[in-house]
Amino acid sequence: MITIYDIAKKANVSAMTVSRVINNTGKISEATRKRVKQVMEELHYVPNSTARSLVLQKTMMLSLLITDITNPFFTTVARGAEDTARKFGYKMLFGNSDEDYTKESEYVDSIVSTRVDGVLFAPAGDGSLDHLTRLQKHRIPFVILDREVPGIESDLVLGDSKEGARRLVEHLLQLGHRRIALVNGSPDVSTARLRQQGYADALKLADIPYDDELVVHISYRDFRDDGALDRLLGLERPPTAIFAANNVLAVGMIRALRERGLRVPDDVSVVCFDDLGLASVLDPFLTVAAQPAYQFGALGVQMLLERIEAGPELQRRTIMLPSELMLRSSVRPLADA
Amino acid sequence: MITIYDIAKKANVSAMTVSRVINNTGKISEATRKRVKQVMEELHYVPNSTARSLVLQKTMMLSLLITDITNPFFTTVARGAEDTARKFGYKMLFGNSDEDYTKESEYVDSIVSTRVDGVLFAPAGDGSLDHLTRLQKHRIPFVILDREVPGIESDLVLGDSKEGARRLVEHLLQLGHRRIALVNGSPDVSTARLRQQGYADALKLADIPYDDELVVHISYRDFRDDGALDRLLGLERPPTAIFAANNVLAVGMIRALRERGLRVPDDVSVVCFDDLGLASVLDPFLTVAAQPAYQFGALGVQMLLERIEAGPELQRRTIMLPSELMLRSSVRPLADA
DNA sequence: TTGTAAGCGTTATCAC
DNA sequence: GTGATAACGCTTACAA
């Protein structure tokens, strides 16, 4: 491996001078600078950032931890994060927790050991508390993405889960639906709780009693659970509409409905949180509350870099990003409203 | 930051003993081992992998470079790669080139400087030659994913582009289509050339003349180019079917067709390479040659680790993964076959 | 079984 | 302007 000493020797200077040329620090005569640069080119020298990290105590590396790389919402978040990190000269260490606390914990170990400069962290759920506390103990700055974790104070980039949910449900109500099911993520996740609140709020405003039978919980990552749907369809008064708390759940419900010979929206209407990426281009069908996923990532990295710069003195900040209602064709008005 | 010296002092041993306990090397009495472990727990010690990397000349980090994080094919590749890397204790540095040679070049700089142990590299195209040569110069092992680059000899994980294309086109021919358009990626990309060959082979076998007018090139990442479709539709004898060389192009074509009031498959049939992720679950509509994306990533990392282990002596290997024809409903038989 | 010394490739500090 | 030296946190080689 070529080091600054190899360069130094060949250019007849000290290693220190080479270092100065590389970093553009200190005073250097134009002549030696040129000579050193020349030799660096010749030998294809590339600085060893491991060595640099060790002495500088800075890795120029951020970590991005998401919960579902299969979900277009998160891949778009990743894209925003990655673009922004690159723009500022940071590398991106990537992790996918699959909403699995064990995996998440392993990633935190790895993150701490790697001494990344900061972490963009989409928590698996409330049980991520320990992991985030561990980061705090090691003074690794982080910004939490998408989900709050009770007990953790930090910078946050969140969506307007409650508000978005309320608007989706109100949309269904306006079209005459009265039996609206909520297919939700785990109550262990803050967004699931908030979306449920939004759902309940909308019903309350419309003077419709909240019916526990209409609310089921699956994992945000599961599009294969048919039991939930069967339970809903088996009710004495089955729902005429389903509010799925995220895009993956919605896809699962629609698939299951179709497999049972039911049509969307003719037999059952469906709406959900988060857009679908390519699927929405292919067929703009599903009515959704679309979150600005790219912004989640981009603003998250921006906040993170500011936090790294400023240290813990800086006041904690929360960015709340609104979602946009995309009215498409997965909902039909109910004739006998 | 807590170092082995802090542990050593508090446990009344030398740093070396601490190192031995951490790495389970050398002989250590059970008593001291216990004492050292105890202190490490107390102080929440985590080894500094930067320091370790510097002395070991090994970062335990792989780099994954893909061309389109928006494409479900590549996110699934990433998932396979990530899972496998983690299983073997490797971290994953992530990059998204967007098929942009400039971005790709920047990533290669970053990769070389970071001294990752190996790279899983999906090249932007033939122009990636320089970048791969640069990796070779620095003796960084890599496995090329999805696309061959003329002039580079390396381990490879490829799909059966030619064969898959041929089968897709033969499927269309069997159903009576004679005017079949090819909407292809850039000829700068090996898969685009091979898919074109497969297309041509199928036509030849069926004694149908190859018609240059029916072949257009767009970027594999572009689902917004409407000009291509308009050109095809404007032909004296427009196509009755479109073979899109990847999923993104297919989505773009279908969108554009629908915007022009044309229906798939009633007016035009569409098939493509690569499946669509969630969109295919939501609505198994598009007939595709599905590639085993997860395997691309998983086997790629496996090959890469073997290469890292074995060094350049090991014979180069190519894994060719077959694709699976998924017959769905985006194709209709032509009555007047 | 444990410890000492040197070195991984870089930069900060101080001296010339 | 330029250079010598120590330090970043760890492990290898050798000594005790």
UniProtKB/TrEMBL annotation, chains A, B:
InterPro entries: HTH_LacI, LacI/GalR-like_sensor, Lambda_DNA-bd_dom_sf, Peripla_BP_I. One of its GO terms (molecular function) is DNA binding. Keywords: DNA-binding, Repressor, Transcription, Transcription regulation. Coiled coil: none annotated. Pfam families: LacI, Peripla_BP_3. Residues 2-56 form the HTH lacI-type domain. This is LacI family DNA-binding transcriptional regulator.
